[in-house]
Amino acid sequence: MAALSRFVPNKAMPFNAKLFDIIGADETLGIAKHEMTLLPPFPPGSVIHDAACGLGPVTEIIIATSPPDNIKIEVTDLAPPMVGIYNNIATAKQWPSKAAIVDVQKLTFPDSAFSHVFLSFGLPILEDPVAAVIEIYRTSRKESVRRILTGRFGVLVRSWPLNPNPSTRTET
């Protein structure tokens, strides 16, 4: 992925949480909320990866489901500004998570680390989306819940649990 340009036109809004609230945070939060209605409750001991976290709509809705106290949420994003904004929001809302700058195409987590993986709207902007999906599989447990949301022009195109066995695959 190309580095973000440092040039900012005089009348442009700063690259901050307010800008992202204006350009789509409500939509991604609404979609994340709907996604959680399609899943069973998080069992005790769940280890969740919120990949390409953005402003944290997935984390926010996970917390809103009142999961067991002993879940762990690992949060990553490739863009340092997004990680900073996420961490400010997480601190203000007292979420039990902190984002780190990690490339979903080259995850540093061990194999089979996660019971749940969420990647919302990050896939289309990645340089190598196939590498990201491979990494999601590698870091997921065999029976994990894996959800990838992709969008085109801000509209949900498809959401599916990644399951390599076509006879048991379900689509929503």
Can you describe what's shown?
This protein is an alpha/beta fold. The chain has one domain: Rossmann fold (3-Layer(aba) Sandwich), CATH 3.40.50. The chain is built from four helices and six strands; from the N terminus they run H-E-H-E-H-E-E-H-E-E. The chain has helices at about 15-35, 55-65, 80-95, 130-140, and strands at about 45-50, 70-75, 100, 115-120, 140-150, 155-160. The protein has a six-stranded mixed β-sheet. Strand 1 (about 45-50), helix 2 and strand 2 (about 70-75) form a beta-alpha-beta unit. Helix 1 (about 15-35) crosses helix 2. The protein starts with 16 loop residues before the first helix and ends in an 11-residue tail after the last strand. Mean pLDDT is about 80; it is low at about 150-170.
Separation, N- and C-terminal Cα atoms: 29 Å
CATH topology call? Rossmann fold
Structural class, judged by helices and strands? Answer: alpha/beta
Write the element-wise H/E pattern from the N-terminal end onward: HEHEHEEHEE
State which percent range the strand residues make up. 15-25%
Helical percent range?
Answer: 25-40%
Topology readout:
Elements: H1 17-37, E1 47-51, H2 57-64, E2 72-77, H3 80-93, E3 99-101, E4 114-120, H4 129-139, E5 140-152, E6 155-161
Parallel strand pairs: 1-2, 1-4, 2-3, 4-5
Antiparallel strand pairs: 5-6
Helix pairs in contact: 1-2
